[in-house]
Amino acid sequence: MNSYPVALADNQFKRFRTADIEYARMKVSEVYCEHRLSLKCGQLDAFHYHMPFDGISFNYMGYGPQSNIEPGLLRDFYLIQLPITGSASMHADKQTIESKPGKATVINPSVYTKMTWGDGCEQLMLQLSKRRVHGVLNNCLGRPATQDLVFSPYMENRNRQHASWWQHVMRFINDCNQPYGFYKTPEMIDNALSNIIRGLLYTLENNYSARLKLDNRPVLPKSLRRAIEYIKQHASENLTVEELVRITEVSERSLFNSFKQCLDMTPMQFVQKHRLANARLQLLDPAQSLHMSVTEIAFNNGFSQLGRFSAHYKSVYGELPSTTKARFMD
């Protein structure tokens, strides 16, 4: 996940290398957006390699000494930053996320952001236009998205899906524009870029994840769709199989068979999965996490026993809910 982007750090993609802080700020603003740039101390040694395509660009950047960057709102693009060397921190909506080789930060367009790049930090950066990302999202959903897409703010190589996605990105970077590379036509390149975005939608947790996973399956039976909708609307309540049978007007056996055949889980397993996913989104949302305790979030999502909730949460996400919440309280 943190391989050096050899093909990207080529002279054909080099935009600049400079010790002039205002020149660096101006050149970077041309690709991203207006921002503030300042140094803690030392001499700037900024560089930028840029591989642009329609709605997506791959970038390799560094500033030299510790640098503070304040872009504010990105507005019309998403930005994924993976340190190749050194470390960085992202400050967004009262949360701070540290990044290092193996752990990337993800900035959503509507989040006010400040960044600090440590000494010697060099990062691989993916800039994805909101237009193109939402276009791919709409295609996956089969209909227009009704709200802005919001990603989880970090990716880690200990998550195998995240690591696999980065490997795919690196293969594209290192193969594209090579004389003997796989991508021979603009259509092949465009399809590969759409697949990178599509892979991100299915790999990195976001506010459409549950819907994408459901919509990626065959058309569900009417009774199953009714049960799923009811569970989503009443997940915080004490749901029972008997209640789902009454709502769907099918037998308990038929209901179980539908869940197992279409979703590969029982009705109550789906209830728990939905509750956990919703609780995690709340823990990852600073607007809620900063003002609610883990206990409140658990109870609001239908968990009556905090210990059991924490155990189930850790078994799915690899960390305790308190750890997820503490990440944004530093």
Helices and strands in order:
Layout: E1 14-18, H1 21-31, E2 36-39, E3 46-53, E4 56-62, E5 67-72, E6 77-85, E7 88-92, E8 95-99, E9 103-107, E10 113-117, E11 122-129, H2 130-141, E12 154-156, H3 160-175, H4 186-203, H5 209-215, H6 222-233, H7 241-248, H8 252-263, H9 267-284, H10 286-289, H11 294-300, H12 306-317, H13 321-326
Antiparallel strand pairs: 1-3, 2-5, 3-4, 4-11, 5-10, 6-9, 6-11, 7-8, 7-10, 9-12
Describe this structure in words.
The chain has helices spanning 21-31, 130-141, 160-175, 186-203, 209-215, 222-233, 241-248, 252-263, 267-284, 286-289, 294-300, 306-317, 321-326, and strands spanning 14-18, 36-39, 46-53, 56-62, 67-72, 77-85, 88-92, 95-99, 103-107, 113-117, 122-129, 154-156. By secondary structure, the chain is α+β, with helices and mostly antiparallel strands. The protein has 2 domains: 11-208, Jelly Rolls; 217-326, Arc Repressor Mutant, subunit A (Orthogonal Bundle). The mean pLDDT is 89.
